[in-house]
Amino acid sequence: MTHQSPSAGESRLERGKRVLAEIDGAAGHNVVAALADIAPEFANYLFEFPFGDIYSRPGLDLRAREIATIAALTAMGTATPQLKVHIEAGLNVGLTKDEITETIIQMAVYAGFPAALNGLFAAKEVFAARFPVQQEQAV
């Protein structure tokens, strides 16, 4: 899946909101709502820098960006909520369950088995929510 290039005259905030909506649908708006009472300006930073500046750069498509993000969040080992959001985003941009699972398993080499194990359990939760019928059939 490719995304639109930055539009002339589009602000970082506008571009970030557009790219995030393309990847995550309503997830970005949920973050803004969750931060509204404590740090509303921080939500704008999330739109502007990661999505308005980095995700909208040329050179990688959204699938490659999500693979890199899933790998990095898995390797961190401390970002399970964000990892779940990006596993969902990976599915949204066309990654398969197998591609996501293999990305997480690959991180065992670099981040250790505990980080990969935590990532696999996060993926299992996302897959179960996203594909409930397939999970039941597997039992």
Which key phrases capture this entry?
139 residues; mainly alpha; AhpD-like; 2 domains; globular
Question: Can you tell me about this structure?
Answer:
This protein has 139 residues and is mainly α. It has 2 domains: 8-57, no CATH class; 61-139, Up-down Bundle (AhpD-like). 76% of the residues lie in helices and 0% in strands. It has helices at 12-24, 27-35, 40-55, 62-76, 80-92, 97-111, 113-130, 132-138. The longest helix is centred in the last third of the chain and has 18 residues, at 113-130. The mean pLDDT is 89.
Amino-to-carboxy terminus distance: 32 Å
The CATH homologous superfamily name of the largest domain equals AhpD-like
Number of domains: 2
**Molecular shape:** globular
Proportion in helices: over 70%
Q: What percentage of the residues does DSSP assign to strands (E)?
A: under 5%
Main β sheet profile: none
Helix count equals 8
State the CATH architecture of the largest domain.
Up-down Bundle
Tally of DSSP β-strands: 0
| H/E series | HHHHHHHH
Which class of secondary structure composition applies to the elements? mainly alpha
Mean pLDDT: 89
Kindly provide the name of the CATH class of the largest domain.
Mainly Alpha
Rg from alpha-carbon coordinates? 16 Å
Runs in which pLDDT lies below 50 for 5 or more consecutive residues are none
* CATH domain fold name of the largest domain: AhpD-like
Chart the SSEs and their pairings.
Layout: H1 12-24, H2 27-35, H3 40-55, H4 62-76, H5 80-92, H6 97-111, H7 113-130, H8 132-138
Short précis:
The chain contains eight helices and no strands.
